[in-house]
Amino acid sequence: MRVGANKAAAKPRALIMRTDVLVFLAFLALVTVGATVLAQAGLVSVSFVKLLGKTLCLCLAALAMDLVWGYTGILSLGHFAFFGIGGYAIGMWLMWDRTELIVMDTLLRAELPPTALEIEEAIGTQIFGVVGSSDIPWLWTFAGSLPLQLAFAVLVPGLIALVFGWLAFRSRVAGVYLSILTQAGTLALSLWLFQNDSGLRGNNGLSGLQNLPGLDDVPQSVVSLWFLWASAFALGLGYILAVWTVSGRFGSVLRGIRDDEARVRFLGYEVEHYKLAIFTGTAMACGIGGALYYPQAGIVNPTEIAPIASIYLAVWVAIGGRGRLYGAVIGAAVVSLLSSWFTGGGAPDIDLGFYVIKWTDWWLVLLGSSFVLVTLFAPKGLGGFVDLWTNRRSTRRDDLGPDQGSLRAEEETP
To answer: How far apart are CA 27 and CA 107, in angstroms?
Structure first.
């Protein structure tokens, strides 16, 4: 028993010492420390630091998407909804606690001390007055508790994924039908959130999330660095866990499901259990990413949960190279940074004489074209170029992407 325990304990340490993991963690640390030093020296803006922090959160979501799609073959078009749910969970606490402090400061100046009912009504009016209400919905019962809302940011996405996955996988829904089902569920959730009576302020969403309660004296330049480091830590830990997941027998079964599910089922493996485990685990990872992302973005609304956001997530993974963990991270980072540059006015307009190309209008066309070109001419994505640069031969099973047969047959499976 002691020998088995020592082997189990040695495996995570051996994974961390792998060259690709060390390179990834070293590069992540270099980016984080470099951005911190430059920010302290005043050479980069607060908005740029927040952009880097948000990009790292999106990389974590892409990593989760690569596990569920690139390694298991489940093309989920609803995974970004879990990302948004994590943002809503932490956003509720941020809005409640900040509003409570403002209300208490105002009411305590009155001659008579406020009652608990007056405090509750004042908080409800402040938060929900924008949708014409002052009643506090039941969803906000535990909004004042940071530990519970942090737990909800992870557990609620996991519970939704568990229930959805159990119903879908036990019915053996797969391929394009499963993709449509995940997209339909995401659309239903976003449409419900758009309603004012959803309890989450409808189309207005939750705003002002960048202001941490009780830390009004702390400048945003410092808060942005806190979130940058937290996002980097989450991505680094997520990458290690992802490598650990795909390195052992569990990862081999996942790849087997992706390449030939019927054969894996014939060998006696409970395919549904493996699918459910990876689907639920990646949903929880997305929830963590969302909980870190939206305080840096400052706002979360139903458009963040719309199906198009999950489609973008799949595009990032495809461009980076599905079935390669570092490829998913590269794809999300490159597209996120380029998107900010093109849509934020960083890219200069091109005057053709008869027409002016404004990249804010053409960015989505450029992104779609890149996706098509990568699919046709570079199926390994940007991660494939990394393989060429490092002269890798992909000898480890956990580095192998989908074979060409599975790429063609996966979406055809009823």
So the answer is: 50
Contact 49, 228 (CB under 8 A): yes
Q: What is the DSSP track for 98-124?
A: HHHHHHHHHHTTSSSPPPHHHHHHHHH
389 CB burial (10 A radius; 0-12, 13-18, 19+): exposed
218: region left, alpha or beta (phi > 0 left; psi from -120 to 50 alpha): beta
Summarised one tens digit per residue, pLDDT across range 220-249 is 999 999 999 999 999 999 999 999 999 889
* Position 311, amino acid: I
Instruction: Provide the pLDDT for residue 16.
Output: 60
**What HEC string does 195-209 produce?**
CHHHCCCHHHCEECC
For residues 89 and 82, what is the distance between their CA atoms, to the nearest angstrom?
11
Selected residue with higher pLDDT from 33 and 103:
33
Assess contact for 230 and 236: CB atoms under 8 A.
no
Q: What is the pTM of this model?
A: 0.89
| Residue 212 Cα to chain centre, angstroms | 21
Question: Hey, which residues does 206 pair with through a beta bridge?
Answer: 300
Residue found by looking up tokens 């053996």 in the block: 172
Q: Which residue has the higher pLDDT, 347 or 398?
A: 347
DSSP reduced 3-state for 217? coil
Report how far residue 45's alpha carbon sits from residue 49's, in angstroms, rounded to the nearest whole number.
Answer: 7
